[in-house]
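Entry for the shared binder. Reason: the reviewer on the internal report wants the predicted structure included alongside the sequence.
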Amino acid sequence: MAHVSLDDLRKRIDELDDAILTALDERARVVADVGRAKRDAKLPTYDPDRERLILDRLAARAGRFPPEAIRAVYREVMSACLALQEPLKIAYMGPEGTFSHAAARSFFGLTATYTETTTIEGVFDAVVRRQAQHGVVPIENSSEGSVAHALDALVDGNLLIQAEFELEVALCLLTRASGLPAIERVYSHPQPLGQCRVWLAKNLAGAQLVQSPSTTAAVREAVADPRAAAVASRLASDLYGVPTLRERIQDHANNVTRFVMVSHEDAPRTGSDKTTLAFSVKDGRGALMRALALFEEEGINLTRIESRPSREKPWDYIFLVDLEGHRTDENLARAITRLGEHSTMVKHLGSYPRATRKT
């Protein structure tokens, strides 16, 4: 093979970059046409399942370019193209640098407009008031379990889950202290503190653990306190300029949080869906068992069940279940109807495409 000079290789890269820009410009033109067609047909501009299918198809065609890098690149391409149709405003529990912020950016890209709230309930309120089209909230962590405020907001409100996705939560110890012996206080949100409790007990047994409203609020405490540290994300370290003393301090290597996108509508059927329901059963022996048996009789798989206090009266509970299938599937629609006959309350919380489970 003939020797190719560095200048020739760089010239070839420039030519490829120009070709990519030309293709991106053409893609943006077609996307604008798609936007007009959707508006004429009165269809929603944003289609998370369509985006998922595109990303899956492109990642499956990966050659030398890593599949996850392809997903990241095309997430930004689609985010920018979507902004040409209709700018998206997304609510999340802030401030900037929280894992909710990272999750929203990973799902919607950098081109979306982000609105931060101080609480999970504030995310729901922003969407209800149409100050944002969608909201992103954490609903479950693989080691710490459910996020109670998110579940309660779903049950109490009228928004629906339109999509679910997962984010690996890599926890870091951020501090301006000279080393571990100099740290007297560790700030973080209760969930991250729980996710690294063993590491903290082994390495900072004498430090006081202080709960903060968010991981970003914890970083701000660490900035002002030279004897303090915060458990937060690498993104927060970059945003607020607090050095990372230790990385990946979570007790379980595969620490994953499940996030959901809440909207005024849920998603259409894709054939690979989940449905979330809330229900309460009538008092009586075996009432819950009979209610759950309905799903078995209809051939429906339950992937998750838990209870939450109903807050209507002491020791009264609401049960939340995740089911395989879409509410429009005949067997699931039939099961929901039958469940209503055995329950004092049944509430549909959304049908949405099933996320690929991280292992």
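Summary line for the report: The longest strand covers residues 343-353.
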